[in-house]
Amino acid sequence: MANSGLEVVSNPSGIYLSQQNPDSDVLAGLAVAVVMDGSRSFLIEVQALCSPGPTVSRHVNGVQASRADMIIAVLMKQAGLRIQENGIFLNVANGMALSETAGDLAIAAAICSSFLEFPIPHGVAFIGEIGLGGEVRTVPRMEKRVSTLAKLGFNKCVVPKSVEESLKALNLKEIEIIGCKNLKELINAVFRG
Question: Which processes are annotated in GO (biological process) (predicted)?
Answer without folding.
Answer: recombinational repair
